[in-house]
């Protein structure tokens, strides 16, 4: 493995996770403090996801024209600037536009980064290598809500500060060689219609985690606050989910390398389905609440990490880039529609719509694993 490129990529994407982890709860909390309902907060969150979806089909073309490193550098600048400019306006339309640009920038970074790390990973240790990548991202991301909790109401230029965080990814990206995802012929395009039928479990795993991650960062703190938890501890709820995600990813990667990715992948989905119904009962018991959030973060994060591993197992070359683009397009759809639907349901049907929506998404993923097993598709 080219370790210099690997560690530069891991650290750079990790710093992006720091900015993302701070920006999402800061946006939700700021809107809530202004008296905006969860339905509107869900809509603003969904706009970022639409940006991810909109950018995904064009990533291969931009990589061909500018190279992977330059494309990622441009995306970091765009994401940081869009976040900082939120400081200059209270207009929800302006915020929506800036969040769209931010989401597009994140979509570019994740598509290239995930394809790149899968190309670097040896087959016999793919689970552990991809786990190091996702662990770095989540390790940095989990600090974001803690920063918001620490500086909430104390830092006047909070969005500008969050935007500046992204710029710390630039030195690492600049150190990387430009030999990441291969330059692809524009005529080949991203043949989603050929790739998508080969990855139902991958797509639904990514869809579940996109929903889970976005709701944990944006609406889970509000869920906790509605149950009487203070704002500071409610924000830390999102951090605890990310701690669980971070702590066990390498262990799940090792298990996947040793016992088979598909078996571990499906087991994680089953565990999420068993744990989520406990959430409303745990919220008033602190030790149970924090333990449950840790476990949910661990199993849910493993579902996404192992979806990336599955991409590397099943695809290579242009197909791998196409599969990574599909994963990020799926992220855009799920993290867009999910918070929008969940915000409306929390407003109309009750606050416990949050765990119910998460459970439904996890159950669909488990069903896809059973379907792939029956069709003999599992590797």
Short descriptors:
single chain, 379 residues, mainly alpha, 18 helices, 0% strand, globular
Outline the structure in words.
This protein is mainly α and 379 residues long. 81% of the residues lie in helices and 0% in strands. The chain has helices spanning 3-33, 38-55, 59-66, 68-85, 92-120, 126-151, 158-166, 170-175, 192-195, 200-218, 220-226, 231-247, 249-259, 261-275, 279-282, 286-314, 317-348, 353-375. Helix 1 (3-33) runs antiparallel to helix 5 and helix 13 packs across helix 16 (286-314).
| SSE sequence, one letter per element | HHHHHHHHHHHHHHHHHH
Number of distinct helices = 18
Largest sheet: none
Strand content: under 5%
Measured between the Cα atoms of the first and last residue, the distance is: 24 Å
Mean pLDDT: 83
Give the radius of gyration. Answer: 19 Å
Helix proportion range: over 70%
Tally of strands: 0
Low-pLDDT runs: 181-189
* Structural category: mainly alpha
Described by the principal axes of the CA atoms, the overall outline is: globular
Multimeric state: single chain
Topology at a glance:
Blueprint: H1 3-33, H2 38-55, H3 59-66, H4 68-85, H5 92-120, H6 126-151, H7 158-166, H8 170-175, H9 192-195, H10 200-218, H11 220-226, H12 231-247, H13 249-259, H14 261-275, H15 279-282, H16 286-314, H17 317-348, H18 353-375
Helix pairs in contact: 1-5, 1-6, 1-7, 2-5, 2-17, 3-4, 4-5, 4-7, 5-16, 5-17, 6-12, 6-13, 6-16, 10-16, 10-17, 10-18, 11-12, 12-16, 13-14, 13-16, 14-16, 14-18, 16-17
